[in-house]
Design goal:
105 residues, globular, mainly alpha, single chain
Length: 105
């Protein structure tokens, strides 16, 4: 039996499905790509003590945090089992992995 987690090359089904919807809705796709570009430009590598790798890591964290907060705010309020299931699924999303895919484009 294969105990490996993941789905379609992503770390989880939840990560894959969120990325799929973000990529397939044109306005959402453009919004997050622009947001990623803006965040990358906010952390310039011109500061001598900041390496390009550190610049990327800082932008990655900022973008992942923005996406996580955005989708938590957008999540409908559901009570009981349905709310627990939705919260659990959203909690499985690897926002860093999605941020990587956005920043690498």
């Amino acid at each position: 039996m294969n105990n490996e987690k993941g789905y379609q090359g992503w770390s989880s089904y939840s990560t894959w499905v969120v990325n799929l919807w973000m990529s397939n809705e044109e306005d959402t796709y453009r919004y997050w790509r622009e947001k990623g570009r803006e965040i990358s430009e906010t952390f310039p590598a011109s500061v001598e003590l900041v390496s390009p790798h550190q610049q990327y890591k800082t932008a990655r964290v900022a973008l992942a945090d923005d996406m996580n907060e955005h989708y938590k705010e957008e999540m409908p309020e559901l009570d009981g089992m349905w709310g627990d299931l939705l919260s659990s699924a959203l909690g499985e999303v690897d926002w860093f992995e999605i941020a990587d895919s956005i920043l690498e484009e």
